Amino acid sequence: MQNNYTEGKLFEKRNLSMEPLGKGEYENCTFKNCDFSNADLSDYKFYGCVFFGCNMSLAKLYKTAFMDVSFKECKLLGLLFENCNEHGLSISFENCNLSHASFFKRKIKKTIFKKCMLQEVDFSECDLSGALFDNCDLMQAKFEGTLLEKADFRTAYNYALDPELNKLKKARFAQSGLAGLLHKYNLDIDPHS
After folding, report:
1. Whole-prediction pTM value?
2. What is the secondary structure of 164-181 as a DSSP string?
3. Taking Cα atoms as reference points, which of 149, 119, 151, 147 lies closest to residue 133?
4. S-S: 28 plus which of 14, 48, 93, 180, CB 3.0-4.6 Å?
């Protein structure tokens, strides 16, 4: 079976469970308000694509390629980015809900997370050097053995990460967020003094 190659196409309000997307390569395509939830996107390739207002929750991403792909206002619950094709993996997120997703051992340097819900996301052993967490909720996100050098957490909130278990050289934090670095010590820090 031959794979499709599609370039520069707009896919709007597609429900993949009713109208499957042909397996193949998609370049500079826009997916708007599409429902990919629980879809099997294994071995699909997306280059320079934009996903806007899409639901991709619990989709299978085995060897899926995302190169220069942006997600805006998407629901991406429980996605296992750790299963993606790691060659050239470059993604950005704006106003997305990625709760319960996993980036375990992924190299995603300089990734932009802007106004995202990142609750209980697994960033263990991930390379997030130079990443930006702009106004992101990191409640119970897991950082263990994570490379966070030059990452920017200045406007992020609800994070708890252990400086002894992660590489934080030159990472940026707001003074108000320093309690997130001391979380494991169970200190009572008064924000008003």
Report:
1. 0.92
2. TTSB-TT-B--GGGGGGG
3. 151
4. 48
Encode burial over 50-86: b for 16+ CB neighbours within 10 A, e otherwise.
bbbbbbbbebbbeebbbbbbbbbbbbbbbbbbbbbbe
Most distant CA atoms of the chain, gap in Å: 67
Nearest alpha carbon to residue 97 among 117, 119, 111, 114: 117
Tokens in use for 49? 């694509």
Degrees, nearest 5: CA angle 78-122-119? 65
pLDDT digits (tens, 9 = 90+) for 89-148: 999 999 999 999 999 999 999 999 999 999 999 999 999 999 999 999 999 999 999 999
Q: At residue 5, what are phi and psi to the nearest 5 degrees? A: -130, 120
Cβ partners under 8 Å of residue 92, min gap 6: 69, 70, 71, 111, 112, 113, 114
Smallest Cα–Cα separation from 75: which of 31, 109, 108?
Answer: 31
* Separation between Cα atoms, residue 61 and residue 102, nearest integer Å: 11
